[in-house]
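Lab notes, practical 5.
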Amino acid sequence: MIFVTVGTGSTYGFERLIIAMDDIANRIDEKVIMQIGCAKYRPKYASYFYFIPRSENEEYIKNSRLTIAHAAAGSILMAFHYNIELILVPRDRFYNECIDNHQMDMARQLEKEGIKVIYDINNLMNAIVLKNNYNQKSYATHKDLFIQNLKLYLCDLDNKLKIRR
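Output from the prediction step:
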């Protein structure tokens, strides 16, 4: 099963990912379940729901073969914790999916550590097919690197905000 999550903290939709994954769900022989948040698009080929409690979201991630997520800390850490294959599709300010590109920054850092990141949604299908042969590093390795990079990013962001004041 492929689980797609766009997060629960955003008031922005993530139509680009939801539409692409619904199309992919129509073309593959694997169940796709999506947490679509406040997206306006309603999937036709994948099972979906809007929001669920964190514990239920964790169960979906834990029981998936592959999780496809926006580049936010919660989903990433859960996938690492359960050693679930992960593809990140960061929200992009260009498409009005967020207020800034912090997810792009996070994704670029994780990509350096071997996490698959999709910037062009047209490449998502190929990434899913290739993910069957991809060997992701263990959770422990990613967790430490993720926390280190997250701290660096937050310190940098804090410094930028201080400069603007």
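Observations recorded by the TA: The radius of gyration is 15 Å. The domain at 2-164 is CATH 3.40.50.2000 (Rossmann fold).
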